[in-house]
Design goal:
The complex is a heterodimer of chains A (59) and B (673). With 59 residues, chain A is mainly alpha-helical. Chain A is built from two helices and one strand, in the order H-E-H. Chain A is rod-shaped. In chain B, 10% of the residues lie in helices and 48% in strands. The chains are: A mainly alpha (59), B mainly beta (673).
């Protein structure tokens, strides 16, 4: 019984490792931020300058 | 007292007890019943069988302060062949008591008025009545008797009965010889409990004798160690089976299956505890699962108690087995197989429920044993002890018997019976104790753990080799001159507002990468490198997607210091660092970077490389985490593993052979490692 469970558990771990590695999943992936389109449009100097409006990209 | 003459022989008979119903004539064994119209001749009974009872007529006794005298007895024959005594006790109070005696046990009951007794045909072994468990339903035949009897004895009459047992040695019998049936309630007790002053030692010593007979077929010696109780004897030389009746042999058949040779010779005496035993017979039994499994049982006759016990041998393991009172066993399912039962304050777990078959017999037995005889046996264990519940069914009787087993080593058996050379076990015995606290060497599942780790490392290597790694940007930034990124890969003519500032000794600059085309589906690596020495530059930035608005920060703390102290060179920091982003959707991205450096030093030059689909440092960490996770089950299993027994056997090894899990659930083909 233990062997069967452990083999199943081990396969799950290997599958999880393969998934994370192949797709390059990093911790915190679910916490990505998005800048509202309105904010970008309102920035001076074009879409690449919205940081100057006060957004610091999390830094 | 009334004195009369026997209507058969004219001899004098006495009715000493006013309430006795019959007297058996001492001269001619005629049963004389007392009726309203005078004396009635009910016929003759056979001569008394020597059952080896230490009791005798006219003995006085006292039970719980109530005095009585034994005034008569009848002898009953069981359908399986055995004979037992029923003594009749006339109490000083005028009440009658019944004292049944069988195999060293005594059952004292008195008649109690009871209405609504269950009919005989609905009674089942294991059923309940009045807090009691039905342990036997069967019939008995009156074959002999003596003295005064409280009931009308019909010689050779057969009546049906049911025996019941309960807690605290309670014992009862339902007697179906009359309509409505009679109820007798009482207890199981000992000879001492009967309060009879008998010179027991003298009585037993005079009766313990071996009867020497000769086999009717081969002439070989047949020694009866319990001649009063023997019903069958099988010649160890030729296998001829005989019925035994009062010391006379009647040849039945010669058994074809002779079975194994006894490891302890028949007739050999030994001592277990304080009791002396003689090996009376041996039989081999079997159960069939995927194949036949055999074991042997040695019938032991206790010369002092005049009772029987067993010595069971299975694969070199031995156990000493004695009957257990059904009333002393707390069994939730007397007619079935409960997961747990209790006996003497100990809980026993079910281990096996099977049909045992007698394969071969040799020697002497107290019942009419036959090869091929079957019985359902339910085994419970609490090593080193065990309890077995055995159901015996014949056309005339149905019984359930409990027996208690105690594990013995071959060495203990050799010492008890002064024999040598008993085989040693190579496996863990069902009842073999495992010393607490001893843990086996090695671990559980280590082999599989090693395999899984090897598989993990191989997988990591394969993934690292097959990931579609590609470089999508490789730019050099002169932080003192960001208007000239090297090389400029796109027509990024909108590099608007790059700035430098100086504040508190730090210079900083903000700049953007050219647009990056990401294929998606894999991670992204941003690597910053510089050739600084004894200097630092900090780059904080964001990866952003102009279309979706995704913004994800990163930072690179590049610093490198080196020198020589006390003649030893040292170095710390890193001139190259990477930051990673999780799987991205395909699209065009850019990097916004903000660099800080020491304003007192020349602006550094930073190379920024962006690659997609790489084996990252995080993947290495994932591999380490996976190894740790893989380690958990073996560690837990090893820690939870029970103590180890001889040769490293564990409880797991014991239960591997069971039909049940340790929780009492039935498993047919459980792969328990």
């Amino acid at each position: 019984m233990f062997k069967a469970f452990y083999a199943f558990f081990g396969i799950l771990i290997l599958a999880g490792f393969s998934y994370l590695t192949w797709f390059g999943i990093q911790p915190g992936m679910g916490q990505r931020k998005y800048v509202a389109g309105g904010l970008r449009g309102a920035a001076h100097g074009g879409y690449r300058s919205f940081w100057y409006s006060g957004f610091h990209g999390g830094k | 007292m009334a004195v009369a003459n026997c209507p058969s022989c004219g001899g004098q008979i006495e009715f000493k007890i006013g309430s006795s119903a019959a007297v058996i004539c001492d001269h001619c064994r005629t049963v004389v019943a007392r009726t309203d119209r005078g004396l009635e001749d009910l016929g003759k009974v056979a001569a008394l069988v020597d059952t080896g009872s230490p009791l005798r007529r006219d003995l006085p006794g006292k039970i719980r302060g109530a005095g009585y005298r034994l005034v008569g007895r009848t002898q009953m024959r069981h359908p399986m062949g055995g004979v037992w005594d029923e003594w009749y006790a006339a109490f000083d109070s005028g009440q009658w008591g019944w004292i049944a005696e069988a195999q060293g046990k005594y059952y004292v009951t008195v008649k109690e008025p009871r209405a609504g007794l269950p009919p005989y045909n609905v009674l089942q072994v294991g059923g309940r009545y009045d807090g009691l468990t039905v342990t036997e339903v069967g019939s008995a035949t009156v074959i002999a008797g003596e003295g005064e009897i409280p009931w009308r004895v019909e010689p050779n009459s057969t009546y049906q009965y049911a025996d019941l047992s309960g807690a605290n040695n309670r014992f009862a019998t339902i007697d179906y010889s009359e309509e409505p049936p009679l109820f007798f309630d009482g207890e199981e007790t000992t000879l001492e409990g009967l309060g009879i002053n008998v010179d027991l030692e003298q009585a037993r010593v005079t009766r313990v004798k071996v009867v020497k007979l000769a086999c009717s077929q081969c002439g070989g010696p047949l020694n009866l160690v319990a001649p009063e109780q023997a019903e069958r004897i099988v010649c160890p030389n030729c296998g001829a089976m005989h019925d035994v009746g009062e010391g006379n042999l009647r040849y039945l058949e010669t058994l074809s299956n002779r079975g194994p040779q006894p490891l302890i010779p028949l007739g050999k005496a030994g001592k277990i505890g304080d009791e002396r035993y003689i090996v009376a017979g041996m039989m081999q039994r079997s159960v069939t699962f995927d194949q036949k499994y055999y074991w042997t049982e040695y019938l032991l006759f206790a010369t002092h108690q005049k009772s029987f016990a067993w010595l069971v041998e299975d694969g070199g393991h031995w156990s000493f087995v004695k009957p257990a009172s059904a009333g002393a066993v707390q069994d939730p399912e007397p007619g079935g197989a409960a997961p747990r039962i209790e006996f003497s304050g100990k809980t026993y777990a079910i281990f096996q429920d099977s049909v045992a078959t007698v394969e071969s017999v040799v020697g002497e037995f107290y019942w009419k044993v036959t090869a091929g005889e079957t019985a359902r046996a339910v085994d419970y264990i609490a090593p080193p002890e065990g309890l077995t519940k055995e159901f015996s069914d014949t056309a005339e009787s149905h019984e359930v018997n409990y027996s208690h087993a105690l594990y013995m080593t071959p060495e203990e058996v050799e010492a008890a019976f002064e024999v040598t050379g008993l085989p040693r076990p190579t496996t863990l015995g069902t009842l073999q104790p495992i010393a607490p606290g001893q843990k086996p060497a090695g671990c559980v599942g280590c082999g599989l753990f090693t395999l899984l780790v090897i598989a993990l490392l191989a997988l990591a290597g394969i993934l690292a080799a097959t990931l579609p790694e590609r470089t999508i940007a490789n730019n050099r930034y002169y932080l003192g001159d960001y208007s000239k990124p090297q090389p400029a890969t796109t027509a990024a003519n909108s590099w608007d507002q790059p700035t430098t500032t100086t504040e508190g000794g730090e210079a900083s600059a903000t700049f953007f990468s050219p647009p990056l085309t990401v294929h998606g589906g894999h991670n992204l690596q941003v690597t910053g490198s510089t050739h600084l020495d004894n200097d630092w530059v900090y780059i904080g930035g964001d990866l952003f997607n102009e279309k979706t608005g995704l913004v994800e920060p990163f930072e690179l703390k590049l610093e490198h210091y080196s020198g020589v102290d006390d003649g030893e060179s040292w170095e710390e920091g890193s001139q190259q660092l990477s930051s990673y982003f999780s799987r991205l959707a395909p699209g065009t991205y850019s990097l916004r970077m903000e660099a800080h450096w020491d304003a007192t030093k020349p602006p550094p030059i930073v190379d920024v490389q962006v690659r997609e689909g790489v084996f990252s440092q995080m993947d290495t960490i994932y591999a380490v985490i996976a190894i740790v996770l893989l380690m958990i089950p073996p560690v837990i299993a090893t820690m939870r593993r029970g103590a180890v027994g001889p040769r490293g056997f564990t409880e797991r090894d014991r239960w591997r052979d069971s039909m049940f899990t340790r929780d009492g659930k039935r498993v047919e083909d459980d792969d328990d490692e």
